[in-house]
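Suppose you are handed only these lines of text.
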Amino acid sequence: MRIGLLTGGGDCPGLNAAIRAVVKRGTAEHGVSIMGFHNGWQGVIDGDAQPMSREDVSGILVAGGTMLGTARCHPHKVEGGIEAVIETAQSENLDALICIGGDGTLRAASKVHNAGVPVIGIPKTIDNDVVGTDSSIGFDTAVSIATEAIDRLHSTAESHNRVMVVELMGRHAGWIAVAAGVAGGADIILAPERPFDIDDIVKKIRHRHRHRNFSIVAVAEGAVPAEGSSWKPSETLDAKGNPIAGQIGAQITQAIEEATGFATRLTVLGYTQRGGVPTPTDRLLATRFGVAAIDAAVEGNTGVFTALRGEQVQMRPFKVMAGKTKFVSDDLLDTAIGL
Ligand code: F6P
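From them, the structure of the protein bound to 6-O-phosphono-beta-D-fructofuranose can be written out as follows.
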């Protein structure tokens, strides 16, 4: 049996742990051959791959990033992309492809599967916005990084009597901002799921500063003002409609300082949330997903993705995702915003 493996979309800590699990389990337990494709779906389109052995994955469990490289490439959006993938699968004599990716990469995986190349997905994204799984690889590490940053911002904010705004990743869902904001004790948490009113923020900060001399505001890059609110940021999206890093954070920082007169400073965590050593939780999740994916491939169970549901790892059909986004739950939002 020959299985292809690729990592697509934004990188995250834990990808190498998943790669390692697929290769170790596949070669040792099942005696299958693994072909690792470089730079996500682009590598499959180009037929750019390397055979992978246990030696290739030795020592990568704790390494951030992906040894295969990644790219934001979706075959169904490339002229002749699907056909090229089919051609590569045939020429490499692949029985299935294991695709590690976020919502975009896995949407492409579903289309490739429907075109006749058996695919199994593994959800990874620091945004944690993949529908159907309780958690995606990379989320726990991003929350740990962001929480530590918020912890550190407390001491400098208090020392300087400042309002500290920290902008966190999360294009469409505010999982990182909410989880790290609660864990880090942020005083105000802004997520895309709950459009904000700058006047409410200013009022809360003024009230808090009657008895404390600093505040922490955690804002997801995808946060938006409520319809009809008095204040509107200038353009915060790029040509593709994605948030421009630092934009919403900078404008909220300026608005707070102008309205309150309190010194207000911005920290944009950006790509630090996607780098470095994965947490033990992400290493465990990635290993479990990698093992489940290669076991499913060997059993011929394809068109599915690995999903954490409670304590269990289950295989779920791609149609469960169906282009949806997993938003932060109302009860978690109420905890975060109502604290
Ligand atoms: O999808 C994960 C993510 O890190 C988002 O949180 C962020 O907005 C985006 O990727 C950044 O994309 P890129 O790596 O292409 O700049």
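What can we learn from it? The chain has two domains: 2-138+278-320, 140-275. The mean pLDDT is 97.
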